[in-house]
Structure formats: structure tokens, C-alpha cells
Amino acid sequence: MNPEPNVGAVARQFQIEGEFSSAAPYGSGHINDTYRVFFDQAGLQVRKILQRINSKVFKNPVALMENIQRVTSHLAAQVAGDPDSNRRVLSLIEARDGRAWHVDEEGSHWRAYHFIDRARTYDAIESPDQAYQAAKAFGHFQQMLTGLPAPRLHDTIPDFHHTPKRFLALERAIAADVAGRALLAKPEIEFALAHKSITTVLLDANLPERVTHNDTKFNNVMLDDATGEGICVIDLDTVMPGLALYDFGDMVRTATSPAKEDEQDLSLVNMQFPMFEALVRGYLASTGAFLTKEEKQFLAFSGKLITFEIGIRFLTDYLAGDAYFKVHREGHNLDRCKTQFKLVESIEQQEERMQNLVQSIA
Question: Residue range 248-261: average pLDDT?
Fold first, then answer.
């Protein structure tokens, strides 16, 4: 992807009133290039969000945007009666040709969203109440999409949470060792191989397919500045068919530890039980009516599985020479992997207690 796009020229291709004023990188995402752009509207600086879709990750940007159009339209209809409805769902801005995206001269696909005011995301969770609010918001997101009309959404990344296939990719990366890093990651490789048996558990459980977010890390829900409520779920690139537990598991991964995803001091990585309890209560407050008994049974386990899965993805990318996730320092993906695996260990130490809690609430 072109590292220096003409953001102003792209922004002008969308139906945004006023004159383009400025732009700057925005957020902490690993995949797409995101900018906050300003337009001068009668002397007022109005903010919008502009994103360049990473076509190396999302091979079919048009299918991805078709998914997002359908999902945001359906969600908007669900919240239409809410006085704060324009802040509860991402809202696309059409390009000047009427499409939901723009293709620049380099062939890159772009999209624009209205900026959601008086709310923000957090890279690290600060309280059990935040965990509760995020889980409730993600659960409500799933609940609203249970009635999404056919046809089935596109798979924007096929087998995204297919853990056995992720593990196979790791095994291939270990064997190929194209970046010559396998020795540097020997403890992590051994940890991964020792946990291979858990990769098939959810797929073997024959759980129902849902419309799911598939990337429910804590910073993908915006919390209201005044009330702390989970106001809007964002980053919809991976909204597609999946298991409900993929979403809950990723919440456990990103909301229960006080450490950042790439924390180098592993002593800070710990699955905090009060955070887990808040997640369970918030999530079931929104989803308890439609989740099956079997889905609830695997809630505690899902956190361990998804944390392990993301860990092996970081490890695979490290071994492959950092081809997928953006890195900002030497060994960045290996640091991310170590953090995930340390969290897996912490979950394992508390797994029985976690399971007992779920059973008492569900």
C-alpha cells in the first residue's frame, strides 16, 4: 500500500460539505490506515473519519463494503427510535459517485464515516464497569443482528477464527522459518505445540452460526464520555458469519488483563477475575435470551481459546517476517505473542472458578 496517500484529494471524493482543511492519522489499529479529517463548514471545523482498506488483508474490498452497508443499515433501523441513534451506529458517507467507497488512482479502496462525538475508545480497560459496558454493547450488537435478512454475509477473511487452520499455518511457518527466527521463539513454539489439542474444541461442539463481530477487542467499542455507556461498536471489517463465542472470547482476551497487547513486562499480564465476572454479566444481559445452553457452557473456555489463537497468529507472523500485522519495533509480534501466551496461562490457573461463575449466572 502507498505509505503517503493524498488524503485531502481522497476526502474530497466523498459527499462532505465544506472545504477540506486538514488530516492526521487516527487510532491504534494494526490493519487499515485511518485518518481524522477536518472540513471547514461555515467557519466550523467538522470531523470525519477516512480509512484506506488494507487490500493485502481484505482481498475483496467491495464484498467487505457490501457487508458493512447491510450491517449498518440494519443496525440503524434497529435504533431508529432512539434520540441518540446517530451515535449508536457507524454511518457511512457516500462517495460522489453514489457508492459507499472510493477507489483512488493507486487502486486503493477508501471509505468515510461520520465522526461520533462525545465518546472515545480505550486501549486498556480501567474498571469492571467498563468491562460490563463493553460486553453489554457487543452482546447487543450480536442480538440486533440475529434478525439480519438473507443472504448470508460475505466471509471477508475466510476461516478467520478457524483455530485448527491457524495452527496449521503456524506449523508451516515453523517448518519454513523464512525469517530465520524460529530459534528466537523456541519457548513460544513449544508452548503452542503443547496446546494443540484445544484448537478443535469449539468446532467440535456443533454450535450455531451467528452474525458476529469477530474482532471484539476492548478498543472496538466506544464509551460515552458522560455516562460511560458502551455507545457504539466500531471496526466492522470482520463482521461476518461466526460463533458467538469468538466474540466473547476476544473480550476476555482484551478486557481482563491490565497489560497492553504488546506489554513487554509479562509480570503485568494477569486475567483479573472481577473483570471476567463483569464481562459475563454484561454479555449475558444482552444475549442471555438467544444463546443456547451449549453456547453458555463454553463461555469460560472461549477466552482461553481465542487468546491462544491470537497468540499463534502473532507468532506465525513473527516467523513469517511480519507480513500481516503492523510492527513498530524489532520483535514486536513476538512480544505480542508472549503477552497472549502469558494470559492463557493465567486463564488456565483460574479456569475452574471461571466455569463455576458462568454456571451460577447463566
Answer: 93
